[in-house]
Design a protein that fits this description.
The chain is α+β, with helices and mostly antiparallel strands and 456 residues long. It is built from 10 helices and 20 strands. The protein starts with 6 loop residues before the first helix and ends in a 20-residue tail after the last strand.
Length: 456
Amino acid sequence: MTPSLDPSTSRQLSLRLAKEQSQQRLPSVAAALVRDGEVVWSGAVGTLDGRSGGEPAGTGTQYRIGSITKTFVAVEVMRLRDEGRLDLSDTVVALLPEVEGSDFAGVTVAQLLSHSSGLQAETSGPWWERTAGDDWAALLASRPTLRFRPGARFHYSNVGYAVLGEVAARLRGVPWHDAVRTSLLEPLGMTRTTTRPQAPAAPGWGVHPLADLLHVEPEHDAGAMAPAGQLWSTAEDLSRWAAFLAGRTEGLLDPATLEEMCLPIVVNDSPGQAWTAAHGLGWQVWNLEGRRYAGHGGSMPGFLASLRVDRESGDGCVLFANATSGMSPALSQDLLTLLSEREPVAPTPWSADASQVDGLELVGDWYWGTTAYTLRLADDGHLVLGEPGVHRGSRFRPLGAGWVGLDGYHEGEPLVAVRDAQGRIGHLDLGSFRFTRTPYDPAADVPGDVHPDRWH
């Protein structure tokens, strides 16, 4: 435990974890919080066998992380994209010719990553999470089918990630887990993240819902389905992956690619509930009262896991339990909230920036038709037009001789300052929209012209 936290904060975090283990009747739980790429708090409660006096759980104990495995597969696929080995619009059949004639041959890589392919959720055979897996040829022979039109909606697909694992394996020339190990796990120092359990490892338990009794859950190699949920990890190891998601990619992934992966693409629409959850390219994303989080959940018979990172602050939380059910969905958010409220991050001190003098001619009031906006310079070198997210307000970053929109309506659109013969800025051109210093400035080039009577 890092001494940077106030002891009272650490006690409150440990108490919240202990309450979870006791009240939810979990054999054991382990957790860690990450800030600035480092573990600032960690803890474990309970015993591996769920019995009093048994071997205590620890932050170095392995737990199965279930579908968090998918995030490693997704990052490896995006690394292949960045290397030019594939394109997100590539179809499965273009990468795996043997799927010719199958129901999902025309599904794209992007649709598989975002769970919008329409491919069936589970395998056509026995419950794959509780039975020994078979190889890729057997999975293909089971004829996976589409449940929905590709791109029509969100439909979580474990089978889709089996396909992505085979894509990564085929292009890398090694099994998917070897590609992930050499490209991601080893460079990040995640030596305790493996495809099968290595001691000390927690056994998986089912806890009887009406009695204090345990039932052992099976563990096996999932074969072709392994990319959907095979990996085991520890609180210490997965904290490194949380730091990766928070931006500490250690040169293994372009930061712009990570941002691309965390953009919400497909909304998880639950009837009767507000839209708070979505999927990007491999990562789950959440919008909780305007604050964005990214990560992934994981579950396999006998295990529950969670990884969540605050995209604004970079604070992250990893959680494990060796139970089939019971861990509260609110636990990770509770721990992150305790950290942020009791140990707020100090703001960066303000200081003057002489480089902004060149941008002064841009700042001030501008009008799009009759709508007023204020343009200002931000401390990161960006231009800010109005209030981002409100009435088409946006941020812009420098690009060539102009700028490009970063968010809202104008995201990706070009902004250019148009000068007159004397070199003075006459108006701003934002994706063909004219912004002038006064409403419909007669001195500016306004499409449709200015009425001869002007304002009358």
